[in-house]
Amino acid sequence: MLRWYLRRGFWNVIGWGKFKMNKPLEIPLPPVERHLIEPKPMIEVIPEVPLKNVMVCARADIPREERVPRNTAFYRLQVWLYTSFLSPMQPGLPQIDADPQAAVDQAFTRLHRKQFRPPELPAEYLGIADLGSLAVRGPFACYTTRVDDDTWEWDLRILDDYEYHPGLLTLGSRVFFGVDPLRRSLEARRIECVLGSIEPTDSEWEQAVKIALCAASTHVSLVRHFNWVHLAGGAQLAIATRNAFSPNHPLCRLLWPYIFATQQSNDIVTRGQMARGGDFESIFSFTFKGMCQLFDESHLAYPHLVNDPEVDGDARGVRDAGFDTPTQDNLEALFDVFHRFVCNYLEIYYPRNSAIEDAETLGWLAQLNTLVPNGVGVTPDNVTWTGLARLLARQLYLVTVQHEILGSYMWDYQLWTHRQPARVYSDLRREPLDVYQRLVNANFNLNVHRRELMSDFTYLALDDSAKAAMERFQAELGELQAEMDSKPRPVWRLDPRALEVNINA
Fold first, then answer.
1. Does 130 have pLDDT greater than 80?
2. Which residues contact 80 (CB under 8 A, 6 or more apart)?
3. Which end of the chain offers a freer environment for a tag, N or C, measured as fewer CB atoms within 10 Å?
4. Helices (H) and strands (E) in the chain, counts
5. What one-character-per-residue DSSP string does 28-90 give?
6. How many angstroms separate the Cα of 487 from the Cα of each of 118, 402, 481, 495?
7. Is 90 exceeded by the pLDDT of residue 505?
């Protein structure tokens, strides 16, 4: 245990230092000289992460203004340490404390707390986790999908298809929900998983709930957050924007704060989280081989329309379905502010309802549909003013709202492993100290201070009209925040003040 305390102390200091030293990036004007990026398969760019379907920017092609040599060197050292005698993992350690608060207190030390607040326990985790409430509140609401007029589901059976670490239960699961019309709520009625078909009256219900939540948490972190937001969506948006637009194009100026430094950030974080011994292999259920296969296959399934909460809510059948949908309403309110901003901005340069014939804009759409798996739905052949405005709002929503709710927002959910395990062991034991500590430190560093969405970016405006549109956007975000502040804040709610302008800055 002395060796563990020394090891833990070393990595806690590393995490604390990264958090303390991180400063929000200053986002400059777009450079005069356009920098073209030719994405390549990850297996060619980062051979230690052998993914064939995921396209990334080579380190040598990262734009000069994005490069931070100090960060690159630090991550290179960190990745080497992962497989050295100073690895953060130590086999044979005991389980975390049975008291969940004690487990958090032991892993989230006073050193951590000098930089960030401890996690808050969601109301849904006070007893056996309330899946019905989680189906409409918080990060897992995105999985709730209509089966028929009386039934909704979370379907995560795909997670059975990949290789697991020894001693773990597979997570493939399907949760069925019905409607309580009096309470206007959903309630979980059956879970199909490795334990069988389990109902709330069965003795194995609590364990089945943990399997379902572990599945949802794992899929959110690996697939929806890192694979879809960082690699399939954010990275390709940044590449297409740099490649297609000249620096003084109005859409370049609109998108610039949302895409700046994406390639540098993705490069170093991918190496730290996905290489052997990285966070993903060490925290979650899959072996390195299983994790790589999951990423490669789920990358090709990326659905860009998840970045439009209204369209996505309709597709999943949860809008106006006879039960309350607080997270859906929360996300639609945020999206509406983005959409109004984009419409106001677009009108300055493109007459409303006019044909979109600008060559750079059409080139941007062509690149997006080539780079983003399954395209973005708006192409040079079908683009309209309304369609372009909706697409731009989706891109802004992707790198702000989606990145937050699927990433740092998990802080108040993922650390309570007595309800939502990081792994489910076949003998039902709790996570060992090293796995849990790494989970805490990884989530801690997701919450470093980045450039807020509610910042002044009017210096990017090409003219006074664009500046006024940006100022109006900030005012509407402030009004929405004030409206939210007039009510008690539940854990599940996502506020404008919590949003960052992109996935790295």
1. yes
2. none
3. N
4. 20, 7
5. -PPPSS------EEHHHH-TTS--SS-EE--GGGS-GGG--HHHHHHHHHHHHHHTSTT-S--
6. 22, 23, 10, 12
7. no
Residue 383 near residue 354 (C-beta atoms within 8 A): no
Token code pair at residue 169: 């239960």
Residue 361, SS3 per DSSP:
helix
22 token code pair: 């991180």
Residue carrying the six token digits 């004030």? 482
Specify the residue for token string 């539940």. Answer: 490
In this prediction the pTM is: 0.97
Please, are residues 224 and 207 in contact by the beta-carbon 8 Å criterion? no
Strands 145-148 and 151-155: antiparallel
- Cα-Cα-Cα-Cα dihedral of 465, 470, 476, 481, to 10°? -160
Q: List the one residue out of 337, 370, 306, 379 whose CA is nearest residue 141.
A: 306
CA 402, distance to chain mean position in Å, is: 6
Decide the pairing of beta strands 145-148 and 55-56. Answer: unpaired
What are the tens digits of pLDDT across the range 138-162? 999 999 999 999 999 999 999 999 9
The DSSP code for 186 is: E
Q: How confident is the model at residue 166 (pLDDT cuts 50, 70, 90)?
A: very high
Q: How many CA atoms lie within 13 A of 362 on its CB side?
A: 10
Give the closest residue to 78 by CA, choosing from 477, 445, 478: 445
